[in-house]
Design goal:
Layout (H helix, E strand, L loop, with lengths): L2 E8 L3 H6 L2 H5 L6 E5 L11 H4 L4 E5 L9 E5 L5 E4 L4 H4 L4 E6 L2 E7 L7 H24 L3 E6 L23 H12 L2 E3 H5 L15 H4 L7 E6 L6 E6 L11 E6 L1
Helix pairs in contact: 5-6
Length: 258
């Protein structure tokens, strides 16, 4: 009986992350499948052979706008099939979702929109969330076992953010966003990290504006690997790796029995 080890990591620009030791970290074999968000690059502009030489196959879905958004998956297990996007034009233009099938599991790597730049993007975020929720509901009919990892850009509960009161009006912790997370999880999903980690002060992102923020662990948990409830009994281990520091995010980890 083997296991499947998955990492989700928003690298905030893969070329910058590679300059900060991303490849050296990959050499430690942190997972079988590495889901990357915010590549901010196209495959041909990245020294991706440094990654594939470690035994990973690489699959990329980049935004049409250069230096923006984009997702990629590096995997040591050959996928049965790969699907770029969801068919929603506004999302696919920004390279936000890539899907791969491994045995009986559909793995979705998603970079949810951020609303921090203003009202227009916040409105886009709400529209994207609604469309994606509906899309997942339909997808589950065909693929009942799904792993959905990525940067959700939402801290779900007060335990998931260092200063809930001070951030009650901040994008990423707005009541409507948190309600979406409630609705999403209630529709048949499990927050894998919280299965093993009910404790506070566990975060995956820290603002870069002040270096002391990460030092003092004033963070948000906005990166998740969530699974459909029918995979919950296969969760062996879940973790967050704050000591891995090629980005303002850190990797999150899940190990599933196969």
């Amino acid at each position: 009986m083997g296991s499947l080890r998955i990492v989700s990591y928003n690298v905030n620009g893969i070329r910058a992350a590679m300059k900060k030791g991303l490849v050296d970290w990959l050499k430690t074999d942190p997972a079988d499948i590495i889901c990357i968000q915010e590549t901010k690059a196209e495959k041909e502009n990245v020294a991706h052979e440094e990654i594939t030489s470690l035994g990973y196959q690489d699959f990329w879905f980049s935004a049409q706008k250069k230096g923006y958004s984009g997702v990629a998956v590096f995997t040591k297990i050959k996928p049965v099939q790969v699907q770029l996007g969801t068919g929603h034009a506004a999302s696919d233009e920004e390279g936000r979702v890539i899907q791969l099938d491994f045995g009986d599991i559909r793995l979705i790597n998603a970079y949810f929109p951020s609303g921090t730049s203003g009202e227009i993007r916040q409105a886009f975020k709400y529209q994207w969330l609604d469309e994606f929720h509906h899309y997942l509901g339909e997808l589950k009919k065909k693929y009942p076992r799904i792993v959905l990892c990525g940067d959700y850009n939402i801290a779900h509960r007060e335990i998931d953010i260092h200063d809930p009161k001070g951030n009650k009006n901040s994008s990423g912790f707005l009541p409507e966003e948190r309600t979406w997370m409630d609705k999403f999880l209630d529709s048949g999903w499990t927050d894998t990290f919280r299965v093993h980690h009910p404790e506070p002060h566990r975060y995956s992102w820290w603002s870069q504006r002040f270096p002391s923020v990460r030092l003092n662990n004033k963070g948000w948990r906005i990166d998740y690997i969530n699974v459909t409830n029918n995979l919950a009994d296969r969760i062996l281990r879940s973790e967050i790796f704050p000591d891995v520091k090629q980005s303002d995010h850190c990797p999150v980890f899940l190990e599933l029995s196969q």
